[in-house]
Amino acid sequence: MLHRTSLTTPTTLSEKAVHDISEALMLLLSDVFALFLKTKNFHWHMSGPHFRDYHLMLDDQGEQIFSMTDAIAERARKMAGQPFARSGKSRVFSASRTAMLNTSSRST
Fold it and tell me: Cα–Cα distance between 47 and 107 in angstroms, integer?
């Protein structure tokens, strides 16, 4: 039988502080994902005389940005939050997605 254990991390922070920090981390996580997608978009659509240099640079940057997401999500979860994939709080991701779409429509 599977036993569920509490994921509550002992802390001296108030409940409001824990909530505020985890909300900020989830917003940061969605922004990092948006930055990753924008970086990969540039990577996929690169052309011109310096294609290879920029293509490789953007690929490396994308990997570095994506590697940040795990640490941010784990910290948000440890703070008693839930990364947005499970939280049902798509509004956090939607804010970054909307900002990303607004930026991309200006660049075309």
Answer: 16
Nearest-CA neighbor of 59 among 39, 87, 37, 82? 39
pLDDT digits (tens, 9 = 90+) for 22-31: 888 889 999 9
Please state whether the predicted TM-score (pTM) of the whole model is above 0.70. no
Tell me how crowded residue 29 is: count the other CB atoms within 10 A of its CB. 25
Q: How far apart are CA 36 and CA 67, in angstroms?
A: 10
Residue 65: which residues within 8 A CB-CB, separation 6 or more? 32, 35, 36, 39
DSSP label of 8: P
CB distance 72 to 25 below 8 Å = yes
Per the structure block, which two tokens stand in for 92? Answer: 């956090």
* Residue positions counted in the chain: 108
